[in-house]
Amino acid sequence: MSTLQSKEHPRRSATELALRQAKLSPSSLLRAEDIKGTTPAAATKALARLAKQGVLTRVGKGLYFAPKETLIGQSRPSEFDLARKTLEGKTRPRGATAANILGLSTQVSARPQVVVFANNFPKHTGSAKIQIRRGSRPHNLPELEGALIEFVRERGSYAETEPLESYERLRRLLKNMSQGNLRELREVAQGEPPRVRAILGALFSYSGLAKSLWEPLKESLNPLTRFDFGHFAELPNAREWQAK
Fold first, then answer.
1. DSSP label at residue 138
2. Against a cut of 0.90, is the pTM above it?
3. Regarding predicted confidence, which is higher, 168 or 78?
């Protein structure tokens, strides 16, 4: 970049970047790694500086909240928000929460249902209904993909939609996913119980996805085993995927 260009587009300081992120995401929780375009050390100092100025509120070690003005004063993070941020990469929505995220339920639970990959019960979870999954390797899936895996794991039992409507909505969802996200879903499913691999493979195939995406799931199944597909039992190809 030329000297003239540098003067016209000066490099933003870490504090400016952190302030911009805070303004873009009011009522959000921020850590150093959330501040892009600078080093972790500089981002850490910038967040601490903004907290001293009262722009941010320090709510934990290395964790800051960007408050938003409301009719009753500044917003505050919920205990569940704090837990989810602290456990980032180690949680997935499940139950009615997952079904709602997927558009298969209108129910908005007052107590979010979450699975946490940990050996001990996390602190500051507020009213959230936490299910601990010990000994399982966590996968940092995006929220939508994580909800899908858990919805399939629970055999679609929290769906409010009729089976055929559910399949069509999930088909559209899968068709709109990137190849990278679909491969990631498949890889995560390989570490799940066989019924998850069977149902997800059936959904992949039903959605017209490439054989290369679902064939590894098919090959991972014991051909003599039959699975309870629950809400997915009416998939047109359920029997091909060893549904009971």
1. P
2. no
3. 168
Reading the block at residue 195, the tokens are 């019924």
Per-residue pLDDT band at 123 (split at 50, 70, 90): confident
> What gap in Å lies between CA 212 and CA 228, rounded to an integer?
25
Domain ranges of the chain: 3-76, 78-160, 161-244
Listed in sequence order, the residues at least 6 apart from 64 whose beta carbon sits closer than 8 Å to its beta carbon are 29, 30, 31, 47, 50, 51, 56, 57, 58
Residue 138, pLDDT score: 66
Q: Work out whether strand 113-116 and strand 129-132 pair parallel, antiparallel, or are unpaired.
A: parallel
With CA atoms as reference, report the closest residue to 115 among 82, 146, 145: 146
User: Which distant-in-sequence residues (6+ apart) come within 8 Å of 47 by Cβ?
Assistant: 18, 30, 31, 32, 35, 56, 62, 64
The pLDDT tens digits of the residues spanning 151-178 come to: 999 999 999 999 999 999 999 999 999 9
For residue 1, CA distances in Å to 12, 31, 68 come to 15, 30, 38
**What SS3 state is found at 228?**
coil
In words, the CATH class of domain 3-76 is mainly alpha
pLDDT at 200 over 90: yes
Who contacts 127 (Cβ-Cβ below 8 Å, separation ≥6)? Answer: 79, 80, 110, 111, 112
